[in-house]
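Figure 6 in text form: structure in, sequence out.
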């Protein structure tokens, strides 16, 4: 028996017959449903991310990519955040974009060389300004949004919930979840802020009013 197995065996023996503890569930599980888009965009801007609220997502995305100055952007399979062909055409024409697909999977070197990534999301949280990806259609595997230096994320207004418990209720815990609150940043012991260490240095969010 290994040391680990011996320790676990002693814990099981000590806990045998003990009553199940009562777990309090009185915490708040729902927030206000008022002004979800406004609260979400305000929180995201607090993280120094750029936010657009629009019904014309194709034009806004095209202009955002043009301002970025790049032309090679990763677009995960099943990406339908802009819901019509005209929007996709505008995005390609106005931004002179070359869509990089992840099939076969792009290498880390290819991802690093891309000008950015465009994705949808699984859910967004108004109270915290957090976006959650679950590797579903239009989101791709986790590396796609961690390696490129720029991430443009499209959020439908109907995907925004008020609180974290409401978001968790919509998510499948068996899926690989990535929680994004602003661009990647960290600080050392002297509070020197460094951006882009654990993910994109720049986050841009487009909220579609549909």
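Output sequence:
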């Amino acid at each position: 028996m290994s040391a680990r197995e011996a320790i676990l065996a002693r814990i099981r023996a000590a806990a045998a017959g003990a009553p199940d503890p009562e777990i309090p569930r009185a915490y708040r599980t729902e927030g206000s449903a008022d002004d979800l888009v406004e609260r979400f965009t305000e929180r995201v801007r607090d993280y120094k991310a750029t936010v657009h609220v629009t019904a014309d997502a194709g034009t806004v995305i095209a202009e955002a990519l043009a301002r970025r100055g790049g032309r090679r952007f990763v677009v995960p399979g099943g990406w339908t955040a802009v819901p019509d062909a005209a929007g996709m055409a505008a995005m390609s024409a106005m931004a002179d974009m070359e869509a990089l697909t992840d099939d076969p999977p792009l290498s880390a070197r290819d991802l690093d060389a891309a000008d950015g990534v465009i994705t949808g999301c699984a859910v967004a949280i108004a109270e915290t300004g957090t976006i959650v990806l679950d590797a579903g259609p239009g989101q791709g595997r986790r590396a796609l949004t961690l390696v490129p230096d720029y991430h443009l994320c499209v959020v439908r207004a109907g995907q925004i919930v008020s609180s974290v418990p409401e978001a968790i209720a919509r998510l499948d815990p068996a899926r690989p979840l990535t929680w994004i609150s602003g661009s990647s940043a960290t600080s050392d012991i002297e509070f020197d802020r460094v951006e882009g260490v654990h993910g994109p240095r720049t986050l841009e969010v487009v909220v579609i009013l549909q």
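Caption detail: Helices lie at 3-15, 36-46, 57-68, 85-95, 108-113, 164-170.
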